[in-house]
Write a structure and sequence with these properties.
alpha/beta, Rossmann fold, Tyrosyl-Transfer RNA Synthetase, 2 domains, 13 helices, 5 strands, 55% helix, binds adenosine-5'-triphosphate, binds L-tryptophanamide
Length: 330
């Protein structure tokens, strides 16, 4: 049994607290007992238009965020997806095994293509999940720590692994999703029915990893709450407060019960003040380390070079087997 862990983030816009809690923060402890690959998925990023200069900066920003959050390049491999061309190659093969109907059901595609209509969406946006399956299967990944929004994509990766194995013989490990109980879906601070999202145009809906302490305080004090009072956890009846409690739980380590006890008899104002200070205290060292990594690109580039070499070795070996199974080449 292989125990490899793989995950990735798209270098689009700025990372927010949802990305940190749902993905990065979850990755840090896993490194201690698993081999880990953490990828910056730039080929996925270009499924919606990106400004080339900005994309290149965003790639380094994501690398800096990984490191600042506690990913240790001595333990884990950090690399850029497009620098290991086997991802695109296996993505193509996975695309040939994927049914149009399976892709049409993907809620992320439906959401992202809704504005301009399906006919205008790029074909890459449509086939995005086949490339994601390739990312995962290329390394015989056993577990993929992600936020809840990626469950559907991961389920397809499992289906494609089984389909390939049935058709061409045992080749790929079937990966599992690793989803947290509290924190897999951090919601918008302005609308608790929507997930906190990079592409949300509202600044106050999300806390960015690059926000200053004052901006974080302002955004949290302006976050919507529910009409029913009291800091008690009820995701159905009080979704806004449940979301803020989830964030508090994640940044302090307190359980929901402990949080309820701490704020028993107190109002939302007191809770939000404490939450703001806890988020600031948690993010401040991360934001600072991110800036330090960004001010020394040589160190970042060295880490990414190293990561590419390690990932490349694994990917090349796996693709040799895949090509021979499928009958490609001579
Ligand atoms: P976009 O809004 O452009 O879709 P995104 O905010 O979803 O972007 P991604 O790069 O697609 O960001 O996601 C990176 C990781 O962060 C994934 O594992 C994803 O599941 C997780 N993630 C994204 N948003 C949230 C959220 N609100 N709560 C928890 N995890 C999240
Ligand atoms: N689709 C993911 C990013 C992603 C990914 C992966 C995550 C691409 N390839 C492989 C885990 C494993 C997203 O966050 N939007």
């Amino acid at each position: 049994m292989n125990d490899l862990v793989f995950s990735g983030v798209q270098p689009t816009n700025q990372l927010h607290l949802g990305n940190y809690i749902g993905a990065l923060k979850q990755w840090v402890p896993i490194q201690h007992d698993h081999r880990c690959l953490f990828c910056i998925v730039d080929l996925h990023a270009i499924t919606v238009p990106q400004e080339p200069r900005e994309l290149r900066q965003n790639i380094l920003d994501v690398a800096a965020a990984y490191l600042a959050s506690g990913i240790d390049p001595k333990r884990s491999t950090i690399f850029v997806q497009s620098e290991v061309p086997e991802h695109a190659e296996l993505g193509w093969i996975m695309g040939t095994l994927t049914k149009m109907g399976e892709l049409e059901r993907m809620t992320q595609f439906k959401d992202k293509s809704a504005k301009g209509g399906m006919g205008r969406a790029g074909a890459g946006l449509f086939t995005y999940p086949a490339l994601m399956a390739a990312d995962i299967l290329l390394y015989d990944t056993s577990a993929v720590p992600v936020g809840e929004d990626q469950m559907q994509h991961l389920e397809l990766a499992r289906v494609l692994a089984r389909r390939f194995n049935e058709r061409f013989g045992e080749t790929f490990q079937i990966p599992q999703a690793l989803i947290q109980k509290h924190g897999a879906r951090i919601m918008s601070l302005q609308d608790p029915s929507k997930k906190m999202s990079k592409s949300d145009p509202s600044d106050t809906s999300k806390i960015l990893l690059s926000d200053t302490a004052d901006i974080i305080r302002k955004k949290i004090m302006r976050a919507v709450t529910d009409t029913a009072g009291g800091v008690t956890y009820d995701a159905d009846k009080k979704p806004a407060v449940a979301n803020l409690m989830t964030i508090y739980h994640q940044v302090t380590g307190l359980t929901m019960k402990q949080i309820e006890t701490e704020f028993d008899g107190k109002g939302y104002g007191d809770f939000k003040k404490a939450l703001a200070e806890a988020v600031v205290a948690h993010l401040e060292p991360i934001t600072k380390r991110m800036q330090e990594f960004r001010s020394d690109p040589h160190e970042l580039l060295r880490i990414l070079d190293n990561g590419r070499e390690r990932a490349q070795l694994l990917a090349a070996e796996k693709m040799k087997l895949v090509r021979s199974r499928v009958g490609l080449g001579r």
